[in-house]
Design brief:
This protein is mainly beta and 153 residues long. 8% of the residues lie in helices and 46% in strands. The chain has a single domain, classed as Roll (Pnp Oxidase, Chain A), CATH 2.30.110.20. Strand 6 and strand 7 form a beta hairpin.
Length: 153
């Protein structure tokens, strides 16, 4: 049995499950899929040499998605509702990492995401660069999903 090839991180898609249309895959980057276990330090009674670290909860950073600025987009409209109208609709989304045959390798379901920040890159007439929008989402948690359970699109 030979070694498996390394997994690359540049072939992925993002599906917003609760928006219509729910397939928006044109993101250039996704960050924030991580969790940190918080701990509490407890000193052992009568024994000053030992301190125990006990888990107390898990925190998740904001999910940051970047892509070229879209003129008409259900994701952008969802963010505008939150930021401009203070109307929040928590949604779930999938982040799917694909192999070279475009088949899912690994997937994460991000649960109850809401937009907390939207920004667009600086405009500069001296550079010929794409206008990039950044979406920052707060979410409750994520869970890994088997590649076999991912919705085909």
């Amino acid at each position: 049995m030979g070694l498996l090839p390394p997994i690359t991180s540049f072939h992925f898609s993002v599906i917003f499950l609760d928006l219509q249309p729910n397939i928006e895959i044109g993101f250039q980057s996704v960050s924030g899929l991580s969790g940190t276990i918080e701990t509490e330090t407890i000193a052992e009674g009568g024994e000053n040499r030992f301190k125990h670290q006990l888990p107390t909860g898990i925190t998740f950073p904001n999910l940051v998605l970047k892509r070229s600025l879209q003129i008409s987009s259900s994701v952008t409209a969802w963010c505008e509702d939150a930021i401009e109208k203070f109307i929040f609709k928590p949604i779930d989304l999938l982040v799917i990492l694909h192999n070279e045959q475009h088949l899912p390798l690994y997937s994460w379901k991000v649960v109850h995401a809401i937009p907390v920040s939207w920004s667009v890159s600086d405009f500069n007439a001296e550079n010929s660069e794409l206008a990039i929008e950044s979406l920052e989402l707060k979410y409750q948690y994520y869970q890994s999903i088997s590649a076999n359970d991912v919705i085909p699109f």
